Every structure is written in structure tokens, then in C-alpha cells.
Amino acid sequence: MMDVVCGVIENPAGEFLACLRPSGKHLGGLWEFPGGKVEPGESPEAALVRELCEELAVEIEVGASLAPVIWTYAERTIRLLPFRCKIIGGELRAIEHEQLLWCAPGNFADLAWAAADLPILQEISAATTP
């Protein structure tokens, strides 16, 4: 099983950063929370700091973890480790993605999300519903 981290980044308006995967890549054209593979010997938190710097050109502060998601694709099974994050430096850029979008929980359903991210969306929505 491969460990993969993702950052659940919230802005001051209560919106979350959604990233559009590039066409032609695995899950191309679907939205996701940004992140990537945990390298051998790397902590999930360190992997997330590295991945978001590489993908988005930002420095982050890693916060609380959310419930892990085990997801099986045709080629592999992943354990997706989501963490709440805050941007603390850099200038947000779409380096690895086609588009970036700040999305309120009430608008999550407007986007076509990668299936492994759906349980994370449900957890966020449940936590932000008054």
C-alpha cells in the first residue's frame, strides 16, 4: 500500500483549495486536494510540506490530520492521509495542475472530484455545517 498525503487548505473566507489534475495524467480532468507520495524515510508532514512547495510554490503550516482514506485503483491501493494546512509563505501558483479554485463546502458538488477525495469532502462538510 502506498502512502499519499494531501493538504486541505482553507482560506480566511472558509473556502478550500481545489486543484484540477492535468489532462492526460492519471485522473486527469478531476479535482483534488493537492499533495503526493510519501518518500521512504519521510514523515507524512514533511512529505506534505515538500509536495505543496513543489506543486503550488507555497510554504505551509501542517495542522490537524483528518481521517485516512484507503482507496483501491486498478493499478494500486493507496492510503490517503489528509491534513488541514495553512499557507504561511510563497505565492500560490498552479505548477502541477491545470487550474486552482477556492471552493466553499456548499459548492463541492459543483466539481468532479477524484473518488478518493470524496470522504474528505464529506468530513469537511460535516465539520463546517452549522
Keywords:
five-stranded mixed β-sheet; three-stranded antiparallel β-sheet; 130 residues; 8 strands; alpha+beta
Written overview of the protein:
Helices cover 18% and strands 38% of the residues. The protein has helices at residues 44-56, 118-128, and strands at residues 2-9, 16-20, 31-32, 35-37, 58-65, 69-72, 77-90, 99-103. The strands form two sheets. Strands 1, 4, 5, 6 and 7 form a five-stranded mixed beta sheet that branches. The protein has a three-stranded antiparallel beta sheet with strand order 3-2-8, with no helix packed on it. A hairpin with a 4-residue loop joins strand 6 (69-72) and strand 7. The mean pLDDT is 93.
Strand content: 35-45%
Low-confidence stretches: none
Please summarize the sheet with the most strands. Answer: 5 strands, mixed
What is the C-alpha radius of gyration, as a whole number of Å? 14 Å
Alpha carbon gap, first and last residue: 36 Å
Counting copies of identical and different chains, the oligomeric state is single chain
The general outline is globular
Number of strands: 8
What are the secondary-structure elements, in order, as H or E? EEEEHEEEEH
The total of helices stands at: 2
Helix content: 10-25%
Structural class determined from secondary elements: alpha+beta
The residue-averaged pLDDT reads 93
